[in-house]
Design a protein that fits this description.
- The chain has a 22-stranded antiparallel beta barrel.
- By secondary structure, the chain is mainly beta.
- About 5% of the residues lie in helices and about 60% in strands.
- The protein starts with 8 loop residues before the first strand and ends with a strand.
């Protein structure tokens, strides 16, 4: 269970590179951290040791996990904003910038790479950070694995996995079925997933990877946010409106991906990808007017990447060129919610979003010490809405947004184990189709604009066999920051507006120390001083100098891991989350809290079976805290309480077959 500290090679920057040589903050998480003895319910279980990343909303499955990286994504009312999600080279983030992870199969993840900070020069719109997920490959010997997990609140998760390698084909299939009643009223959840990865070697120089994923989530109820007074009376209660209107969602999604790679010669390579995702989504919101939403989505696209390694004059050089095309076709309808029953239609429109991006990156090694990286990307994002509900007028319209995103970085090798780097970059983020929603009706809210940012960063990375240390200091200036609010006439539905500008100053530290090859202690610390610089809302309220809500100023994690040769292991993870605010005016403060989680397990071999038992205790010390804060919620309904101490346990049985 102990992680090897030697710096891994990662492809976070679209080319494989030693993590210590990348002039940016990049974190790597391996398979054991993700899968060994975990519940495998959310990505936050394995990413607590990544600085600069803050999670909320673990226990409300209707809203999806809220992920923010250096403040990007903190505004999200549901789903993931401002952070690019890519699985096996295929985007889970839409062209409009909205992403989700309900289509990610945690039980078959091999590794996660996280880019902390703007990466629009490589990944385009909504790249305030990026989470790159790769599915595991089958082992050389074919295997079958069964895994069952049980826990409090009627948690029940079964998994069946097979994998192997036959001639030129490597394959892995994983099926899972998850159900849980949830800690609060109206928080039941059911999810079935199928994930497959097939890699075929065409020759020694070419390969093709095919991936398929299907999610069927027939039940994900939403307990809603409640007031501080409600939390005191009964933290497990749901908001009465959510119960009355049967708030929740249903999702079906199928994703197909194909990636072809070929090495043209020793110095040149090409990668081609294509994909198609279909998503059928419906939800019930806790209000009557337009409170039932049906969405039929088709999301498809492709890309081409060319790399060439050689010399630029007398200098060693690597060139990266690429193009991405993505298209999102949404048919969206809204109906009155008559206490959970579909009523009269109030809205119908088609939303077509097309994104075309071209990028260039060049890495030049000046000598044995210095390497310079230059990159630029141009994106063109077109929004085209056709109003099909004309009873209240025609709100059809088009908006075209385009932007250049440059970056420049330098990496200096201080010695064989230590690199120092500096980087500057720009990023942009268009409003999503949901964020473009008009409070007064259909069509676009023409008053909001894309969010743009400029970021500067310096850092240091040190790795050796026993110890690693990373530090990064950054400053990000954001113009037209997108921030959420609720309208008094439609409480429970979130709209968006632009803040004038904001400043973000931060520090991220990571230290990992290994003792006796079996014990590892890590510490990560994040300091986030994020404030509105100029911000006057539509009501004339001034928030200049106020802290951006939803982000703690201080975030500290301690993680202790131990394992031995007999297969026993233990992990103790403790996170301190400093106080933060729930609203733009900083009138409601969310108190700091500390949560500790423990995992224990034992693996052993009996009669050619690899058997593992594991036990986990979440929130060991019964800390009272909120798993989610609804930013700027109307009526002070900010809080979604988290469960106190809860336990899960399970068994894994793995059988390998001789080749």
């Amino acid at each position: 269970m102990v992680i090897v500290i030697n710096p891994p090679k990662v492809n976070a920057t679209r080319v494989e590179k030693n993590i210590i040589d990348i002039p940016a903050s990049v974190s790597h998480i391996g398979k054991e951290k993700i899968q060994l003895g975990t519940e495998q319910i959310g990505l936050d279980e394995s990413m607590s040791q990544v600085p600069g990343v803050f999670f909320l909303n673990r226990y409300n499955y209707a809203q999806d996990l809220r992920v923010s990286i250096r403040g990007f994504g903190a505004r999200s009312s549901f789903g993931i904003r401002g952070v690019k999600i890519i699985v096996d080279g295929i985007p889970e983030t839409l062209p409009d910038g909205q992403g989700s992870i309900d289509g990610v199969d945690i039980g078959s993840i091999y590794k996660i790479n996280v880019i902390r900070g703007p990466s629009s020069s490589l990944y385009g719109n909504a790249s305030g950070g990026a989470i790159l997920i790769e599915t595991e490959r089958g082992s050389k010997l074919p295997f079958i694995e069964l895994r069952n997990t049980y826990g409090d609140f009627n948690l029940n998760k079964q998994q069946f996995k097979i994998g192997g390698e036959t001639a030129n084909l490597n394959y892995l299939l994983n099926i899972s079925n998850t159900s849980v009643d949830g800690y609060r009223e109206n928080s039941e959840f059911e999810n079935k997933q199928f994930n497959g990865r097939f890699e075929y070697s065409l020759s020694g120089k070419s390969s093709i990877v095919s991936t398929i994923h299907h999610t069927d989530q027939p039940l994900a109820n939403d307990p809603g946010g409640i007031t501080a007074g409600d939390v005191t009376i009964n933290p497990r209660q749901a908001r009465s409106q959510n119960l009355n209107f049967q708030a929740g969602e249903k999702v079906k999604q199928t994703r197909l991906g194909l990636v072809y790679k070929t090495q043209l010669d020793k110095s040149r390579a090409i990668e081609v990808r294509t994909y198609n995702t279909n998503r059928d989504f419906s939800n019930k919101l806790p209000f009557q007017n337009g409170g039932i939403v049906n969405l039929d989505r088709s999301f498809y696209g492709g890309g081409l990447k060319y790399t060439e390694e050689g010399n630029l004059g007398k200098y060693q050089n690597r060139l990266l060129l690429g193009i991405d095309f993505d298209r999102q076709d949404d048919n969206r309808s809204r109906y009155n919610n008559l206490l959970g029953v579909k009523g009269t239609q109030t809205f119908q429109q088609n939303e077509l979003i097309t994104s075309l991006g071209a990028y260039f990156q060049n890495e030049t090694k000046l000598n044995d010490i210095a390497e310079i990286t230059l990159g630029i990307r141009h994106d063109d994002v077109a929004f085209d809405v056709t109003d099909k509900f004309l009873a209240d007028g025609d709100d059809s319209g088009k908006i075209n947004l385009n932007e250049f995103s440059p970056m420049a970085g330098i990496s200096l090798k201080a010695n064989s184990n230590t690199n120092i780097y500096a980087t500057a970059s720009k990023a942009f983020e268009t409003p999503t189709t949901t964020e473009f929603a008009n409070p007064s009706g259909g069509g676009f809210n023409q008053t909001i604009k894309p969010q743009k940012s400029t970021s500067y960063e310096i850092g240091i990375k040190t790795f050796n066999n026993k110890y690693s240390f990373e530090a990064a200091i950054f400053q990000t200036n954001v113009k037209d920051e997108l921030t959420p609010f609720e309208d008094s006439e439609q409480p429970g539905r979130t709209f968006f507006t632009n803040a004038g500008s904001s400043d973000r100053h931060g520090l991220e530290l990571t230290s990992i120390r290994r003792f006796y090859d079996r014990l590892e202690f890590s510490t990560t610390y994040t300091y986030s001083d994020f404030k509105f610089n100029h911000f006057r809302n539509a009501d004339g309220e001034i928030y200049d100098g106020k802290r951006i809500p939803g982000i703690p100023k201080n975030l500290l994690n301690f993680n202790l891991s131990w394992s031995n040769e007999s297969g026993a292991y233990a992990n103790l993870d403790t996170t301190f989350t400093g106080e933060f605010y729930a609203d733009n005016g900083n009138q409601t403060k969310v108190d700091s809290y500390t949560v500790s989680n423990l995992r224990l397990g034992k693996n052993f071999i009996r009669n050619d079976l690899d058997i593992g038992f594991y036990l986990g205790v979440n929130n060991i010390f019964n800390e009272k805290y909120n798993s989610n804060i609804r930013i700027n919620a109307y009526g002070n309904r900010y809080f979604e309480p988290a469960p106190k101490q809860n336990v899960f346990f399970g068994i894994t049985v793995n059988k390998k077959f001789p080749g």
